[in-house]
Amino acid sequence: MTTLNRLSVLAAGLALGLAAPVVKADPIVQSLHPTNLSAATFNSDFQPISGSPAQMSPVQFQGSAASGVMESQVFQGTGAEQGLYAYAYQIAVNSNGLTSTGDPAHIDSASFHFNATPVGTDLTGSGTNSLSYVVTDGQLGGLTLPTQTGPGGAFQVPTELSWQAQANSGVLRAQFENAATGAPTLTAGSNSATFVVISTQPPTQQFVNLQSADPQTNLPSVYAPTPGTIQVIPIPEPTTILAWAGMAGAVALVRRVRKHRAVMA
Fold first, then answer.
1. DSSP class of residue 82?
2. pLDDT band for position 147 (50/70/90)?
3. 20, 135, 248, 252: which is deepest, by most CB within 10 A?
4. What pLDDT does 235 receive?
């Protein structure tokens, strides 16, 4: 086999290896590191999908007839974002919601199946792709929950928004409380900021699992992607894969030349 052929095989093998789906037997949780995005920018890039209005689903825990709501809406990209779907979510805890002990209701986190790997986009024009966004300064589409409520008049941004790639499905999780930093739960009378994840897959419905001191007594639902590719993120872009393959080929060529010179000496 010639040197050129060896390099071609090496580059092809590296590209295929990097491009192949990677899902570990023991799934890991990866942070999506939300980027702040203005409502004006979002609403200029995405528009509500006809026939899929904003959905407000009640949240109920044992001991409280009305604990809160989970709101969601899916949007379709326009212009440069055409072909993309933006999934937006917001959570509220009712001010009069109570736990089974009579204490104010709260929500620690929310999780549900998001069965397509999140897509990185640069909606802020920073030159760097983001895997999720939080909007704190205005309304998106038909999402009606205020973004300036709660203790002290402030919304609550999730302390972490994460993605978990499993063998046959993906999980999106919004976490509010964090003992290490002292971040509180989403407490009674509070609304979360709107958080957004982008996908290339059209919408379907998924049930939501909400964590609190008491178990859920109903099954709220949200918009989420229809099944697509499930992969650990970030996924290298094709140009990055080719660049890595090219560098590997160059390293192999340099080693070959050095070895040949050593033999000649």
1. T
2. low
3. 135
4. 52
